[in-house]
Amino acid sequence: MASVAAALARRKAHEDDGAGSRSNAVPFNQQDFESLRRECLQNGSMFCDPTFPPTWDSLGYNQLGRYSSKTIGVEWKRPGELCYDPQFIVDGANRTDICQGVLGDCWLLAAISSLTLDPQILSRVVPSGQSFTSQYAGIFHFQLWQYGEWVDVVVDDRLPTRDGKLLFVHSEEGREFWSALLEKAYAKVNSSYEALTGGSSIEGFEDFTGGISESYELRAAPPFLFHIMRKALKLGSLLGCSIDISSSRETENITSQKLVKGHAYSITAARQVQHFGSPVELLRIRNPWGQVEWTGAWSDGSREWDGVDPEEKQQLDHRAEDGEFWMSYSDFLRQFSRLDICNLTPDKLSSDEVGRWSCSEFEGLWRVGATAGGCRNYAATFCSNPQFFIRLDDVDDDPHDGEDGCTVLIGLMQKDARRERRFGRDLNTIGFAIYEVPDEYKGRSNVHLGPDVLLRSNAVARSQSFINLREVCQRFKLPAGEFVIVPSTFEPHRKGSFILRVFTEKEATASPMEEDVNADIHEPEVGHNDVDPHFKRLFVHIAGNDSEISAPELQQILDRVISQRSDVKTEGFSLQTCRNIISLMDMDSSSKLGLVEFHAVWTKIQRYLEIFKSHDSDGSGTMSSHEMRAALSEAGFQVNSVVLQEIVGRYADDSYAIDFDCFIGCLIRLEMLFRMFHTLDPKQRGTIQLDLQQWLCLAIN
Asked: Active-site residue among 40, 106, 241, 473?
């Protein structure tokens, strides 16, 4: 309950003051850079970060763990202990500031390398005004995009070293430390340096920009890909490429032409040059190692350069043995396997007109038993997944392919994957499907589409595959209309949290597709004369001399009746449930049930029993928690996914089944809560205000 309250409070804060936006980054671990630095300067001390200390745990958990040979002799030292006159940045940040150490995070370094090409983006990630002289207190900070929000990450400047040299990323210049400190900040948000091992440049691109990325398999490259790459670089987008490996043994193997397999490269330029009067498309590619360069056509010193005008050759920044090299686009398609593009604003890459996308972003949860429904292969649970509504009103202007439609870029990202590695948790296999909203539901986002809709129609589009990556992202062209996006794991019952991002060329309406929380409960008017004589005699026999039924008596009655039914499983009604029933139905505040009140209870339980049986699809005597939404709706309660998740957590068992007494307990509790709220909200404003005493009395009830 406390965690739910905290999540709601955090969400409200984000809505109220824009916390987590580009202009209002959230302090990571609640550490404020300015106040921490001021405190150190006042005390004359150097900052020591208690949340990421210089210990084995910060290095790693396996290959870089306490007993690993790779960490023998590691010492954490400040830059002033490593060189004379350390500098944060020397003559501006550039690509030679990023040389890989012993950590397998070339994917990250490729992203950092591309970052240096755009000073505006770089200054966002690496805030200005930091140095080892002015107001130096051993503390630095960086800003990263993390799953829908910008965070400001502080680090101390104690860095892992061995034999007096930086163990991980370092600058070619030797006394420049911004890149090493940025790597440390990135390791901190992901729990350790080892968590950075292996990955795709896309991940780094997005975490430095908040942009959204696309991937291309180069063996099936579209005919206009070079044009897209060239425009992307012109717009400041970040590009990375790599060569696939067939086994782990090939990782970082070097080919005969000096390309490294399984290694992340960054693409830093795309140009068309005249070679003896004929146009040739060239790409400039950087190896984060700072060495090991392509030796084929257009490599440093190759004879192809003899056919290029010297002035044009000089403009191409043609140098030798710096880790950066040129390659023809045709060779690029043959030699590399994959291209990643991170669209920054994002900009329209498939149109000659530069513009911004319309963007929507949503957080979601796959919660086992409630919203973790798996893909459509699992018909019994698929419709439990979160759903998101999108309305496309206008088709694209001047479509590049000549076909009318609405361009949509959808990215589904699962959260905290690297932080979970140390616990042995793997990425979920994720994907999404897109369905057209049927006519009867158009114009509404306050519904949750069920099997009668989703299982009786085909998806109009879907992610290319379900895959265990941090993000699945794909571009679509859809007709104008209304659609629902259903993100899911491949198999049901896989927990996780995710971010869904939807980008469209034209303005679009997007929102979670959720029911309004409401209740429609009708209680028939019943008096003494309406009660059947046989029921009256039964009541007198049960109630005894005081003609009223207490909570313990009600518990005995319900347990006795329900134990005689073979079609319903139960462990017996709890005394608390019986107290809730009496509290709900007790009209004279006697804390007991009279004849009419007991008759109303009996009628209600009979109705709920029929609902329960109708949703016990397999005849097991229990109901799957995935049926709870529909069962609640039939009983008159409309809840959204957030409320449903709490209900399942409270009333389902370890196998996510709900027995009859828990079902009754849930419905009675819901009815009580709705009635309390409506009593305290007589003007039906949808909000109530309570003092502490009122809140405690209601919560205890």
From this structure: 106
Strand partners, 282: 271, 328
Q: Which residues contact 168 (CB under 8 A, 6 or more apart)?
A: 101, 102, 103, 105, 159, 160, 180, 183, 193
Residues written for the chain = 701
Element (H, E) at 434: strand 430-436
β partners of residue 267: 239, 285
> What is residue 401's predicted lDDT score, i.e. its pLDDT?
54
CA distance linking residue 650 with residue 638, whole number of Å? 18
Q: Are 85 and 133 in contact (CB under 8 A)?
A: no
In angstroms, what CA-CA distances link 252 with 60, 217, 260, 418, 623?
21, 20, 5, 21, 53
Identify the sign of the CA torsion 524, 527, 532, 537.
positive
Q: Is 192 helix (H, G, I), strand (E, B) or coil?
A: coil
| 106 has catalytic annotation | yes
pLDDT at 8: 54
Which tokens go with 552? 């313990």
Of 40, 170, 190, 287, the active-site residue reads 287
Among the listed ranges 2-6, 468-472, 492-496, 679-683, which one has the minimum average pLDDT value? 2-6
Question: What is the spatial distance between Cα 701 and Cα 699, in angstroms, rounded to a whole number?
Answer: 5
Residue 93, C-beta contacts closer than 8 angstroms, at least 6 positions apart? 115, 116, 122, 126, 178, 179
Please give the pLDDT value at position 99: 82
Catalytic-residue membership of 287: yes
Q: Which residues contact 398 (CB under 8 A, 6 or more apart)?
A: 351, 352, 353
| Catalytic residue, candidates 170, 263, 275, 448 | 263
Domains and CATH numbers, the chain: 25-209 (no CATH), 223-343 (3.90.70.10), 358-514 (2.60.120.380), 528-700 (1.10.238.10)
Nearest to 386 by CA among 430, 339, 335: 430
Tell me the pTM: 0.80
Our answer to whether residue 263 is catalytic in this structure is yes
State yes or no: pLDDT of 659 exceeds 70: yes
